[in-house]
Design a protein that fits this description.
globular, Aminoglycoside_PTrfase, 248 residues, AGP_Transferase, Aminoglycoside phosphotransferase (APT) family kinase protein, Kinase-like_dom_sf, 8 helices, alpha+beta, Aminoglycoside 3'-phosphotransferase, Chain: A, domain 2, five-stranded antiparallel sheet, 41% helix, 18% strand
Amino acid sequence: MDEIELVVAHSERATLRVGDIFLKVDADQTRIDTEVEAMALAPVPTPEVLWRKPHVLALAALPGTTLGRLGGPPTGSPAAWRAAGAVIRRLHEAPLPPRQGRAGRSIATLAAELDAECESLVTDGVLPADLVIRNRQVAEAALRPWTPAFTHGDLQIAHVFLDDDEVTGVIDWSEAGQGDPLYDLATFTLGHEEHLDDVIAGYGAGIDLGVIHAWWSLRSLLAVRWLVEHGFDAFAPGCEVDVLRSLV
């Protein structure tokens, strides 16, 4: 009999693996609906949807492996990172989906979220004030006008599978929709700056590195407290707090 593997779990959602099937349980049905719709529209490989019921989505496992995870050693050849960059570009050039995604929040909304989070990080003693202030300054460059693209919205390296330097699929589309394409690129390379050149080589020229760095700061500042409160270690080597330290 296949064993049940708990892939990830917190108060909002959980993912289980049973053999070659992944079961995603989400308290917010909208996220499941968004995921299914986005995978149907995305011009990149995605998992097969086996069935969907209220609050549960069953997906077939993808062949291959990921390029690693935040805080862990990266894997894969430069060619694999370039292949991932090319697939991200293909997604960003696709027709826009109907929904606004996580990467599509307005400048005003992001600025308000960021300022409130920075204040909480300092007031609650989660991070030193100077580290927060300096990264808030770096993050400012992300708060600028951008042209909407079809974005994944949570494009961590753990969400992209490759086999023999070819992308076999991209998972976890619940935050997908119209958004800033540089948000995806920054999320994908967060904590793995050494592979940024390879990703850009596959993606194409014209990337503003200052904005990529800004999104690294902004995403990390917004994530630290949530991660701590949900049982994740943002202070582990190579994770969000180390990213913030590296940017100042």
